[in-house]
Design brief:
The structure is a single chain. By secondary structure, the protein is an alpha+beta fold. It is built from 6 helices and 8 strands, in the order βββββαααβββααα. A hairpin with a 4-residue loop joins strand 6 and strand 7. The longest helix is centred in the last third of the chain and has 18 residues. The N and C termini lie far apart (45 Å). One of its GO terms (biological process) is double-strand break repair.
């Protein structure tokens, strides 16, 4: 069946001398993998530049469920970037977000609201001119709403512990080791009040920001089996 969809590149790897395997998250089909030939001299229709992390594409392909690797019938750039590939800080965030999504959306099926959230977030980052150091914190926490384990803030009270396994605040210490103490749990409430428009008003030191990243990644590892260590995280720590 012919499928036309927008898709966000998560990662690409070389396969032999002239082929490349591309993992994308698409609006119509969710996670999908493709194999294609890439011209060595840059004169072919399909160029490797199309497969940089977070690139937004328009693709057409014959969807064959029995195939683990699909083949493009047509591919083109849907939305050019103006700043992400050219600013070191944005590029570092972009690489981190792409790697994070490749793990967080590993088995994700069609989820149009989730796709729209990811695409609009990427475009926000590309268009913003400054004060985006907290972008990845907001992005990761709010993504959890779309994949089923958004922290429950309804019964949050001062002095509560935060149960990372259940994603909920509790007045008593959980019986398992995966929790945040009250002073740490209060930061979750602060993070949940942040969005792309107001996050510039929340001042954090580099150490505080890195602690938040570690906590959020721990939260994801508890809810997504096999979520590995992030290779792009050290670069992000250095810049932010």
């Amino acid at each position: 069946m012919e499928t036309k969809t927008r898709a966000i590149v998560l990662r690409s790897v070389r396969y032999g001398d002239s082929q490349i395997i591309v993992d994308v998250f698409s609006r119509e089909k969710g996670r999908a993998s493709f194999i294609c030939h890439v011209s060595k001299n840059g004169r072919g229709k399909i160029k490797q530049q199309l497969f940089q992390p977070l690139t937004i594409l328009e693709v057409v392909y014959d969807d064959r469920p029995t195939r683990s690797l699909q083949h493009f019938r047509d591919i083109r750039l849907a939305q050019p970037f103006f700043s992400i590939p050219f600013q070191a800080e944005k590029l570092a965030i972009g690489l981190f977000v792409a790697e994070f999504l490749s793990y967080a959306l590993r088995d994700e099926q069609c989820n149009e609201p989730l796709y729209d959230y990811v695409e609009s977030s990427v475009m926000w980052l590309d268009n913003v001119e400054g004060r985006f150091a907290n972008f990845h914190l907001v992005f990761m926490l709010r993504l959890s709403r779309f994949i089923g384990f958004f922290p429950n803030l309804e019964e949050m009270a001062e002095g509560d512990w935060f149960d990372l396994r259940n994603g909920a605040f509790t007045p008593v210490r959980p019986l398992h080791p995966d929790f945040l103490r009250p002073e740490e749990a209060a930061k979750i409430g602060t993070l949940m009040r942040m969005n792309y428009d107001n996050m510039r008003f929340f001042r954090m030191s580099s150490d505080e920001r890195n602690e938040c990243v570690d906590t959020i990644l721990t939260f994801y590892r508890l809810h997504i089996p096999g979520f590995p260590e992030m290779k792009s995280l050290p670069v992000l720590r250095e810049l932010f």
